[in-house]
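Note to self: the last two entries modelled the partners one at a time, which told us nothing about the interface. This time every component goes in together.
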Amino acid sequence: MREITLTINGESYTREVHEHRTLLHFLRDDLGLTGTKEGCGAGECGACTIIMNGAAVNSCLVLAAEANGSVLETIEGAAKDGTLSALQSAFHEHHAVQCGFCTPGMVMSATDLLRRNPNPSRDEIIDGIEGNFCRCTGYEQIIEAILAASKEGKSHA
Amino acid sequence: MLHEFSYVSPSSMDELLTFLEESGERSTVFSGGTDLFVTIRSGLSRPDFVVDLKGVKELGLLTFDPAEGLSIGACVTVNQLIEDTDVLRHYSVLRDAGSELATFQLRNRATVVGNVVTASPCGDMSSPLLCLGARVKLASAGGEREMPLGEFITGVKRTQIAPNEIVRAITVPIDHLDAVGGYKKLKRIKGHDLGVVAVAMITANDVSRFAISSAAPTPVLLPDFPANVEVAEVQKAAQEAISPISDVRCTKEYRSFMVDVFIRRLMEAA
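The predicted structure of the combined assembly is written out below.
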């Protein structure tokens, strides 16, 4: 076991963790932040995508111990005071959610994409979410939602 | 779930190398973990100690010197490499290949050195690095050694690295600075995928070089050609050098066929 301290969605956490625990399981099982999903557990599907120190990562392939001192953003931090972010609202309006399992990772990837590239082209959006699988929508509504959010220019606040 | 192991995070090269000397085969080093944690999860790897290299600052350095060339430290991620302006300007084939490697999130963690040390026949970085004449710098408590990348990789997931050693950096000389060329990778889908077969090419100083991935147990570097070589001559040499297999992703015949197609396309585009 080792003690780690990290900041998640602006809040500081200090916990004892098993050294073999993944960051994903730490978030879900130790902290109850179950918005971040486990799909493949092997870095393929992107369901576990979070933003770690400003970079999108697959949290299934990061150890909690490694994240000591990190600043994390997860889907739980996207809505503020019960109000959806512009990106989340765009997902809602464009029917970009079906079963919803990929949505948290998809929103975190799209958040990161729009910070790096506030006005992405359609092709840049397709490239930007290539690490996130969706088995329901066929992606079209997700692409439309990200395009709409980028035009509003406030999705990456 | 991962099996129980201890996480070790040395903060200096001495501390790191001493630990590896004492723990030997019980340790596995990592930086991005994008390969290690997949193999641990599937039970293929069961180290007692998982040793994080990221605490050793010098291993995170990516440097370019016009006289010395490029040095890619063990912890330099693929995204760091492909976003680097010197890499873009002087070693564009590394950018071409790196941007084909997995997904954006993975590239934020996956390292260039890790991709080479994993020594998968379908790794994306070894072929372009072979074309550029890259060298591997190894370090252990006993000292340092260096060898050409072509000698370092010895088979499928096999290299010359010893249990007490790390690859400190991969260096790329200035011999092929500003080479033109490219990287063509066959995948089953348009999105991210392991390479089914891939060809890297560079041309500089009237010499053309080709290296092929996923068509033999190790990446294959063809002999140098004059820049005005005929397409058919390169294709003939490639077919003699590769030994593709049929597997779940592709038949050996299709791999051979696509090697010829990629050689032609790369030469036509150069």
